[in-house]
Amino acid sequence: MPYNKKKMYVYIQNVIDKVNKAMYEKVAELDAVAWVTKEPIPFHERCNGEKKEVHIGETWGQLWDCGWFNFTGEVPKTQKGQKIVLLIDVNGEGCVFDKEGCPIRGLTNISSSFDFSLGKPGKKVVQFLENAEGGEKIDIWIETGCNDLFGRYSKEGTLEEACVAVCNQEMRALYYDFQVLYELMSQLPDSESRHMSILYKLDEATKVLKDYTEEEAVKARKILMNELNKKGGDPSLTVSAIGHAHIDLAWLWPIRETIRKGARTFSTVLEMMERYPDYIFGASQPQLYAWMKERYPSLYKKIEQRIKEERWEVQGAMWVEPDTNISGGEALIRQVVYGKRFFREEFGKDMKILWLPDVFGYTGSLPQILKKSGVDYFMTIKLSWSEINQFPHHTFNWQGIDGTKILCHMPPEGTYNSSASPQAVKKTEAQYLDKGVSDNCLMLFGIGDGGGGPGAEHLERLERVKNLNGLSPVVQESSLDFFKRIDKDSHKYKTWNGELYLEKHQGTFTSQAKNKKYNRKMEIMLRELELSSMLAQINAQMVYPQEEIEEIWKEVLLYQFHDILPGSSIKRVYDESLDRYQVLMNKTQEMIQKSLEAVADNIDTCGIDNPHMVFNSLSWERKEWIKVKDDWQYLSVPPMGYSVVDEKEIDDISEKLVVKEDCLENKLIKLQFNDDGTIKSIYDKEYQREVIQDGVEANVLAVYDDQGDAWDFDINYDERPFDSFQLRSRENYIDGPKAIMKQVYNFGESKLIQKVILTKDSRRIDFKTEVQWQESNKMLRTSFPVDVYATDATCDIQFGTIKRPLNRNTSWESAKYEICAHKWVDISQRDYGVALMNDCKYGYKVLENTIDLNLLRSTNYPGVNADKGKHEFTYSLYPHNGDYVTGEVAKRADELNIPLNCIKVNSSKDQLPKTKSFIEILDGDVVIESVKKAEDDNDIIVRLYENNSSSVNAQIFFNFDVKSVQLVDMMEENASDIPIEKGIVNLKFKPFEIHTLKVSI
Ligand SMILES: [Zn+2]
Q: N or C: which end of the chain has fewer CB within 10 A?
């Protein structure tokens, strides 16, 4: 008689479902009383909310409501000798607290949405008694959130389940035996005897199950044990599994919920560690630990203990898992400095791995930052999300823009939410692109994004797949142990050069424009604050406000989290962060003012009636027009220093400026407008050439259809017809040294006022723009088709530049249809070029000879009405001689972003001269990025970098008393002395090299 296999598969699956249902047996109901509030309240105030008796099926709250539930009941006397659990589902998230107010176990609604191919995220089982006497009283407290793991909720906060149940332990074990074997079988072709052998054993086991009793379960398990005990041979691949719970610090929920998510997730981990001795878990982000320390000190102590035991791995070298496209260079360093210092101070750990599983692309300056901060390894999964090309490696050396290499690994399964099932192990092996070269890879298992972490199911599976015939063996170990092992063969791995560009989520370079603007401004202001505070300490004996600055930095770093700065969070996240940014900005501005005033009051001002100090924080001399009180003056201000000037009126500043109805002109540039406001011609009078391509309009304020979300927009958006803002009126005038064409436009309900400004003696054309943006699903862009021929554009990124293709020959080039750049993008041929600069934008398109800038989007998911409202920004076109280096594009863009600061001098102590540079680059074109107080003493940290892709011998002059200078790493450690003579230090730079100096005074 032939075998009827098909029927067997179906029957076994049915039995597995029945076994699943037989694991827990309900024996009594629990009573529930809830105290509900709008915002979370601590344990000791838990009865302060609105009191409600809640029955099964009743609603207890609305989205984002918070509750304290008291569940009471009794273990039935009949259940003596049984293992008792509580099954609780409030259709929201929950956390069980002990009597002292310490979180002890997280819960997740069973209705939670998730990628079910990775498993189900629900967690409703609370361990209660291992061996009941019967009659025990139940009285437990659960803090709840009326939201799903992923923010939204489907069952509107109804109490779904609250009961006492018996755990049938053999049945529960049998369920996982069945599940693992069935899934392993499904992964193996039925041509393999292992497949058939499992099938028949599963079938045999089903035959002993009739009433689904514990006794039957024991018999069935015995049968399956034959298959579970079959070991693998010598492996060609070993999978290192580590528990993981990706917790977005804000995303589809506000920051306040993340703090509670941390407690839920971490308390679950601790509880599981008691039950599963092999379990190793890891978590990153010092910010999250800092919240735990502050809000849940007793939980934090328990975490600390597990870290000591090396069951819990602290991961990652940054304060949060930040965006690395938009975050500035110094900010990335501070992420590492504050992140590593926290883990060292709290747990004595020196972090070696940058842990950024979910970030939307990785800047080419990261390898150097990491190596110079003592971080040797990098882990992500995100490039598996690329939509056009498959990234060719999972284990590789990543070489940054300066040539530094760092060892990288991407778990081949392509997820940080692995189910740790046989299917996951098989997928890992099948997809591993470097197998054979490397025989190790990582697997990150658990429920994540909204936290949650591994459930018992993950750990039950892992116990069974450690070494199972038909699968690669799986070991539970820390990621550091894994990296150290693969490091031994790092010479064998291939190298990837340049940025790790994610071929997805390019809309995030532009979404939530205000957030991005605040971030840019705060990064610049923190730079000004640190420099001015240092100068006030040196020159005016003011105390450097280290703690306050650190606090501001850390909040700015928090908002660089990879769902906040990119714009991919819900509206509430931005409502809250924008308010906080304004507070931080006001405070920072006040502190800068105070420091600069203190310096100013030490200046000798004799002979000057109304002295003003004009301060230049940039490391080169600036010659610019600036308004001193009410009048324009053309000034030269030395690098990282100041000049004192008097109030005076300047005559004839409008000489050589021309304004006509359709034309602006200075000595260098003639700008002609079309009737619709676009630019017809930009003529470079000095080099006698046209800047704009003949016959093509520039600065068309194009409005494209954009049906995307915060992350993405259609790659073909520009192939469809677009609308544009319509010019309604224009006027021209001269304001001091500035020739201005003010143009007023509208589009639908939106209004745009743009001043096109040409300044005397300047070749920079500013487009100062104010928009009342009222659109939905539209994208506003401007473009400049320039009369320059090149095959790539140079883009400003953190601590250097990167080239992006201007053509679309290959799929890799086509994928870069939108790119991230910081203050400028330049297209140059050898003799001439044009840059488009900006003061707060990041999304560019470069194609053939056109630079196109994404100004605003207007998506509705996840943030509704994103970007509606008023925006102010400036972009500038800068035609120049030679390439971007000859044209000093980077300097001009910094000047656009960092204005000179004019401070009234109130008193005079005659200690400082009328003009002074505090730090000056005497030779070699390098840039001083930051000047700050050393973290651990009163020395000065000066960070410099080379920005022209050249080797440079630089001479740096410190114009104050310096005892000694040391070269240090970015952690301000590993010092080596550098000779200093008459305040001058010589320092060699390789292309894009960053140096950090520690200066003793
Ligand atoms: Zn994330």
A: N
Each residue's pLDDT tens digit, 519-569: 999 999 999 999 999 999 999 999 999 999 999 999 999 999 999 999 999
Ligand 1 center to 242 CA (angstroms): 18
Task: Output the six-digit token pair for 526.
Answer: 């923190």
What CA–CA distance (Å, rounded) separates 443 from 419?
9
Ligand 1 is an ion; its neighbours by CB within 5 Å are 248, 358
281, 269 Cβ separation under 8 angstroms: yes
* DSSP single-letter state for residue 418: B
Q: What percent of the chain has pLDDT over 70?
A: 99
Q: Using DSSP, state whether 586 is helix, strand or coil.
A: helix
Phi, psi of 705 (to 5 degrees): -70, 135
Residue 246 Cα to ligand 1 midpoint, Å, equals 6
Average pLDDT over residues 401-407: 98
- Specify whether the CB–CB gap between 397 and 495 falls below 8 A: yes
Q: How far is the CA of 833 from the centre of ligand 1 (A)?
A: 39
Quote the CA–CA distance of 244 and 263 in Å, as a whole number. 14
As a whole number of angstroms, the distance between CA 768 and CA 754 comes to 6
Single pTM value for the model:
0.98
Question: Rounded to whole angstroms, how far apart are CA atoms 639 and 619?
Answer: 5
Asked if 544 and 338 count as a contact pair (C-beta separation under 8 A), the reply is no
For residue 628, count CB atoms less than 10 angstroms from its CB and return exposed for 0-12, middle for 13-18, buried for 19 or more.
Answer: buried
Find, among 576, 472, 455, the residue nearest to 514 by Cα: 576
What span, in angstroms and rounded, lies between the C-alpha atoms of 920 and 627? 25
Q: What is the mean pLDDT of residues 84-107?
A: 97
Closest CA to 314 of 289, 340, 341, 282: 282
Give per-residue pLDDT as tens, 683-694.
999 999 999 999
The percentage of residues in the chain with a pLDDT greater than 90, rounded to a whole number, is 95
Tell me how far apart the alpha carbons of residues 525 and 81 are, in angstroms, rounded to a whole number: 66
pLDDT tens digits for 107-129?
999 988 777 777 788 999 999 99
CA of 359 to the centre of ligand 1 (A): 7
